[in-house]
């Protein structure tokens, strides 16, 4: 499956306000800010206003699902860290061996 570079680009743009994110995810602005405090989502800030991307919205929906299943924010953060390390290692190995995923 080929990923359209434009699709990834728009998903990463931080353009959505917390109010819209709240409507899209069903989470309250307070919950969203809490997940930011717990380092589970990383909005941009411009003049004190948080801006989120579509990727952030997807992440928040995954977090909400996991929390509903009883997973703690600490466990979610640990899993995110593990996944990031694995992606970084895979990227380093691909670069070293000139592999393509």
UniProtKB/TrEMBL annotation:
The superkingdom listed in its UniProt entry is Bacteria
Quote the Pfam families the UniProt record gives: MerR_1 (PF13411)
Q: Has keyword Membrane?
A: no
- Chain segments annotated as coiled-coil in the UniProt record: none
Q: Which residues form the HTH merR-type domain?
A: 15-82
UniProt key word Repressor: yes
Q: Which UniProt keywords apply?
A: DNA-binding, Repressor, Transcription, Transcription regulation
Question: InterPro entries from the xrefs?
Answer: DNA-bd_dom_put_sf, MerR-type_HTH_dom, MerR_fam
Under the GO molecular function aspect, what terms does this record hold? DNA binding
Q: Which PANTHER family match?
A: HTH-TYPE TRANSCRIPTIONAL REGULATOR TNRA, REDOX-CYCLING DRUG-SENSING TRANSCRIPTIONAL ACTIVATOR SOXR
Designated name of the protein = MerR family DNA-binding transcriptional regulator
Tell me what organism the protein belongs to.
Answer: Geobacillus uzenensis
